[in-house]
Amino acid sequence: MTRPSFLLAAGTSLALMASAATARDTLTVALQLEPPHLDPTSAAAGAIDQVLYANVFEGLTRFTSDGSVVPGLAQSWQISEDGLTYTFTLQDGVTFHDGTTMDAEDVKFSLDRARAEDSTNAQKALFADIASVDVVDPLTVTLTLAQPNGNLLFNLAWGDAVIVAPESIDTIKTAPIGTGAFTFTNWVQGDRIDLTRNPDYWGAAPALSGATFKFISDPTAAFAAMMAEDIDAFSGFPAPENLPQFEADPRFQVLVGSTEGETILSINNKQAPFDNPKVRAAVAHAIDRQAIIDGAMFGYGTPIGSHFAPHNPAYVDLTGTSAHDPDKARALLAEAGLPDGFATTLHLPPPSYARRGGEIIAAQLAEVGITAEIINVEWAQWLETVFRGKTFGLSIVSHTEPMDIGIYARPDYYFQYDNPAFQDLMAELTRTTDPQARTRMMQQAQEMIAADHVNGFLFQLAALSVARADLQGLWANSPTQATDLTAVSWAN
User: For 260-461, CATH number?
Assistant: First the structure.
């Protein structure tokens, strides 16, 4: 029996629709924070790496989802017996997104730029031990160190160490050009960033043909967008109280993992009265960590007593050093000559952990006589007033850089802790390669800053993401602040 032509056409249309439905190769992923600009080598904002790390920009080495350091643009390397010379062999056939070749000259330019005297790299200290970067041939580059550095391969995996094209520097903040699996296409500020699959990528081609990063700062709007399936995933979901609803809905999956994010009540150590260690100790004992985790994060988060991730094998539980004890906090304030307390400022950037946690902390501080004026700021303001300007009393921020206790050895860092003994310890740690000795020094470092109550150590931020059930390949853990899309695909 011959079918009417309109039925054949209808059947063909349905087949095409079904094929299109099963051949999804694009993704819309939401983030709470929009980058201030798009150069990961000249800003401290983790939101830049959240979009660009591994997707657009790559370094000589890179982090994987479990925190391991593996080859990136360097396919291999050799280390001299004295630990002072690293010879990297680069991947062959790598081009930047503008079509120019990536070679050893670009590596030298990028690392020399990062470590230059006038460098604006937020993690310039990562490169401090590099004495010279020398080009051997187009695919070979040698790094000579002033002293052995057991962290060098780790440091080179940071987003701050990615390789950039010299000719792109003038426009890198708005039109980034990297070597990654995706090219930058478009940035509608206040709304989204679009990426497109790089057809000339040197490595394994990603399954996605393109991706859009949407920026949704409001937790209520984030919930609504996800429930309506206007977005496919939300990395770093800002409303943990809604996660049970997603867990109960077969349309979605909830990813709960670990991060490198030590969430702290930052204290300006050079501003009176915080230059008095007794006052900092009083602040620490006024804080009830579990109340903050329960109230601001709905139970997601691990209490910490120092600036160190609990999942790290060298972690020491020092929460008892600053246990919640309001009476002790009041006594310490009296000993510091402040029996009636004092007033200060509490600068809160946009993330929920800061805004919600700040309300709770302000109430806890008030109980012991410390009046904290809450000042809500956007990230650009936070970077300008707190991070660069150091014009603050207290702030709340999650430090998502991996294994970054070394920032306490930088007296000019925004919380301005200046302890020569700690600086010497970090210098010795850098020179040391023996794993057991390194563990002992990392534990000593944790104990030192906990005893000095440098900051109020709150909790390790949990990695909370929501995605459609058939999306696969997203990182559950966050060994660095990134939304790596290179292995993401749809199950059907």
Answer: 3.10.105.10
